[in-house]
Description:
By secondary structure, this protein is α/β, with parallel strands linked by helices. About 35% of the residues lie in helices and about 25% in strands. The chain contains ten helices and 13 strands. The protein has helices spanning about 40-50, 65-75, 115-120, 120-125, 140-150, 180-190, 190-200, 235-250, 255-270, 280-290, and strands at about 1-5, 10-15, 30-35, 55-60, 80-85, 90-95, 100-105, 130-135, 155-160, 175, 205, 210-215, 220-225. The strands form three sheets. A six-stranded parallel sheet has the order 5-4-1-8-9-10, sandwiched between helices. The protein has a four-stranded mixed sheet with strand order 3-2-6-7. A hairpin with a 4-residue loop joins β12 and β13 (about 220-225). α8 (about 235-250) runs antiparallel to α9.
Amino acid sequence: MITVIGSINMDLAVVMDTFPKQGETVLGQEFSTIPGGKGANQAIASVKLGSDVQFIGCVGKDRFGEQLTNNLQHYQIDITGIHQVDAPTGVANILIHKHDNRIVVIPGANAALTTQQIDAHWHKIAQSKLVIMQLEISEAVVAYVLDKCKQAKIKVLLNPAPAQHFSLDWMEHLAYMTPNESECEQIFQKPYEQVVAMYPNKVIVTLGSKGACYHDGQKLVAIEGYKADVVDTTGAGDTFNGALAHALMNESSLADAVYFANIAASLSVEKFGAQGGMPTVAEVQQRMKQ
């Protein structure tokens, strides 16, 4: 069982010919409302690959909250840990131009997740082989879960996004940390090659089309990216994290798990929307044979 503790958002996606400059108005091509949130995305990425997943988080008492909860239930994710609160459901405003995206997240109900709610569901969390978190929820809740998981000897995979909310004190509590290149350098103020050497087999840095890397205690291990026909990069990092968690929980070595996650992420960018492109295990295995 994987427990995801994190964010649930409705993505408000706009496809455009060009990003607006300051004070400029431009015409968009398409507008879509798409289920998202880093927590929900990572949960769905894992479950589509075959993992059992339960979710702990918050939504508002509004239409978006109802739609997003139903969406997670559709994927057979255990939603008994999702609370309705008196705050609007989180949203993410996503501007998409060619193969680039710019995202503004409004946490809304995600910020209402409390340590008391963690305690209320601890009996279920304690059954997990792995807990996945991101930083679109309260820092206090992240710190609390890390402490409880360390005491219970439950492994935690933390995706430190947005990076400005990360605390270096958390490193000793983590089994795995998955920043992208810019997040890694923002947190540690060092090139990522130095960081992975400081935390062997713990920090896995995603490098977009260049793949991913980590240090195995003796050398830098680079997993090359897989060439993809890019449609939308939204959710590629979340797919990587969900796939990495799935592979690790199925006894893969770290090298094999990172390779598997890399292939899954490459497939995810070939369709529109964060969750729509997330692959099944059969699709990943098929691409691995190519």
